[in-house]
Amino acid sequence: MEKISVPVYTPKGEKAGSQELNPAIFGVASKMPVIHQVTTAQQANSRQVLAHTKTRAEVRGGGRKPWKQKGTGRARHGSIRSPLWVGGGITFGPRSNRNFTQKVNRKVRKQALLMVLSDKVANDRLIVVTEWGFADAKTKHLAGVLKGLPGFNKKTLVITTPQDRQVISAAKNLAKVTSIGVNSLNVLDVLRNDYVVVPKGLVNVIETRYKL
């Protein structure tokens, strides 16, 4: 495989050399069926099942036969909670015990993630920074760093560690910026953002954690 390298930027937006990337991680060819499978599964697994209707057995009332079986000239009915009646139970309605989860093998999930990350690299949308360069959780500091990087004012995914509390807090106040832990990378978040910004120290972490 050919070597892959991307420029490294300082917090001031200046170029500070380059970072070599593992082609086995950041040079994976895209396969749309794999990406589609993982994306739809992730969306299905995060789906909340809220809609719930009651059957005729669960609706309150309707225990007494509304009128006698014969002799009234009206149609036969045994309960006012029949699905035929207004206020009656629902037939084949949505139930809260529905299960939409889809199982995807771990290896396939990793493959899809590497594909979308590789696509970012191929389109110069993976940005490596030397460090964040600020210690307090000020939104203006993170905005200042991102302003000097390619893709400013585009939807950006910032990769962090639990120790980057100042970055995580600052990102919450920026409309087009989302922070995500390096151990929580997923296909959907990478696809939803135009650019991915990662500190230089986390490149090796990604290559180690997500290798096939």
UniProtKB/TrEMBL annotation:
Cellular component GO terms held in the UniProt record: ribonucleoprotein complex; ribosome
Keywords from the named record: Ribonucleoprotein, Ribosomal protein, RNA-binding, rRNA-binding
Cited Pfam families: Ribosomal_L4 (PF00573)
UniProt GO molecular function: rRNA binding; structural constituent of ribosome
Positions of the UniProt region annotated as Disordered: 55-79
Biased composition (Basic residues): 62-79
Gene Ontology biological process: translation
Gene3D superfamilies: 3.40.1370.10
SUPFAM superfamilies referenced in this protein's UniProt entry, alphabetically: Ribosomal protein L4
Assembly and interaction partners: Part of the 50S ribosomal subunit.
Biological role stated in the UniProt entry: One of the primary rRNA binding proteins, this protein initially binds near the 5'-end of the 23S rRNA. It is important during the early stages of 50S assembly. It makes multiple contacts with different domains of the 23S rRNA in the assembled 50S subunit and ribosome. Forms part of the polypeptide exit tunnel.
Family to which this protein belongs: Belongs to the universal ribosomal protein uL4 family.
Protein name: Large ribosomal subunit protein uL4
Organism expressing this protein natively: Candidatus Komeilibacteria bacterium RIFCSPHIGHO2_01_FULL_52_14
